[in-house]
Amino acid sequence: MLWLLSHLLWAHPFSTNEYSVRTAMKVSDKGVALLVAMEIPITVALEEIGAKKEESKKSKQKKIKRYTQQQWDLLAKSLRYTVDGKEPKGRWRPIEHPANGKAAEGFFVYLVGFQSKKPLKVKPGMTIVVENNAYPEAPMVYTASAHSSEPWRIAESTSKTILGEKEALPLAEADRWSRDAGLRTLTVVVAKDEQEKSK
């Protein structure tokens, strides 16, 4: 999970009126690590929080805390994670990070990761899918990425199909993002290095 967080930039490089969704996956011998990040424009969030200038600091903080929890809950409920068509046991939960639930560069940022009840045993040919249905009507930009460590490799991924080589660009670059809603679903097919497979 630390690897996924280290590759996260907190604001997409587009209009501050657009939401964003980013899905990141890392496949390794330890299993599958998943991170989903959502950015909500500050103007939208502040209006929905409804804090008034005349309210006490404590009252405002309480409203922000409640709104933050609502966004984590909404994101978790909007995500469907399957491996070869079956849902692994576990739950989506907020990631402990200083930026989670905070405002940065024009957006409020919400981060969740999947906490498995037991490590997933990775197999060649395995198909992993993460589908995100949060805020389907909102103006949105998307990005996604799928990475692996030896002996595993990503044979196919939605991110590669839609973004191509741009999948590897820094998140600050506009070409790293797309308005193609196909990126709401990250589908990944896992393969194993042939040398390792023959051992």
Characterise this structure.
The structure is a single chain. The chain has 199 residues and is of the alpha+beta class. The N terminus is likely disordered. Strands 1, 2, 4, 5, 6 and 8 form a 6-stranded mixed beta sheet that branches. The chain starts with a helix and ends with a helix. It is globular and about 65 Å long. Helix content is 22%, strand content 36%.
Describe the secondary-structure layout:
Blueprint: H1 2-6, E1 19-28, E2 31-41, H2 42-49, H3 57-77, E3 79-83, E4 90-94, E5 103-104, E6 107-116, E7 127-132, E8 140-148, E9 152-157, H4 158-163, E10 185-192, H5 194-197
Parallel strand pairs: 1-8
Antiparallel strand pairs: 1-2, 2-6, 3-7, 4-6, 5-6, 7-10, 9-10
Tell me roughly what share of residues is in helical segments. 10-25%
Q: What letter string, H or E per element, gives the SSE order?
A: HEEHHEEEEEEEHEH
Count of alpha/pi helices: 5
State the assembly state of the protein chains.
single chain
| Average pLDDT | 89
Low-confidence stretches: 2-7
**What about the largest sheet?**
6 strands, mixed
Through-space gap between termini: 29 Å
Beta fraction of the residues? 35-45%
Radius of gyration: 18 Å
Which structural class best describes the helix and strand composition? alpha+beta
DSSP strand count = 10
Principal-axis shape equals globular
